[in-house]
Design goal:
Helix content: 25-40%
Radius of gyration: 20 Å
Strand order of the largest sheet: 1-2
Number of strands: 2
Order of helices and strands: HHHEEHH
Number of helices: 5
Distance between the termini: 56 Å
């Protein structure tokens, strides 16, 4: 671990986070407990309202942007309790390559695949929306 940190200490532009002994559910529990403790210590527990911003501010990764791409190695089709909150709008890339064998070319494949995607962050593009509406009409369903 120390060798990897030293070898990449002058790198810029790409941030890699290693999550060792990490669990997304535990992170959320810790975030909610921190919010409760903060409200309790300021005498505001009875008026406490939790929103997305409050939760995000108390996550382990609060100083980092949410990931745009989650690469899942070993062909596993699950996220395994990993960054449950943060990956809400991340693109998923699954590869059969095992983590120890994941090389620069594998990363390049993932990035190239990612670049081809139409990121909508939960919304529809105009063409998707029109296509969906056309499909509903074809099926005899009123889209409105």
């Amino acid at each position: 671990m120390e060798a990897a940190v030293q070898a990449t200490s002058r790198n810029t532009g790409l941030r890699v986070n290693l999550a060792l002994n990490y669990g997304g559910r535990n992170e959320l529990v810790d975030a909610f407990n921190a919010i409760l403790e903060e409200a309790r210590s300021h005498g505001q527990l009875s008026r406490l309202r939790v929103d997305e911003a409050a939760i995000a501010a108390h996550l382990y990764t609060s100083s980092l942007p949410d990931p745009d791409l989650l690469i899942r190695t070993s062909g596993e089709m699950r996220i395994s309790n990993f960054l449950l909150w943060q990956i809400a709008y991340a693109e998923l890339y699954v590869t059969d390559v095992l983590w120890p064998d994941f090389k620069r070319t594998d990363l390049l494949r993932a990035v190239l695949d990612y670049q081809k995607r139409d990121r909508r962050f939960g919304g529809l593009t105009a063409s998707c929306s029109a296509s969906a509406e056309k499909g509903l009409v074809s099926a005899g369903i009123s889209p409105r």
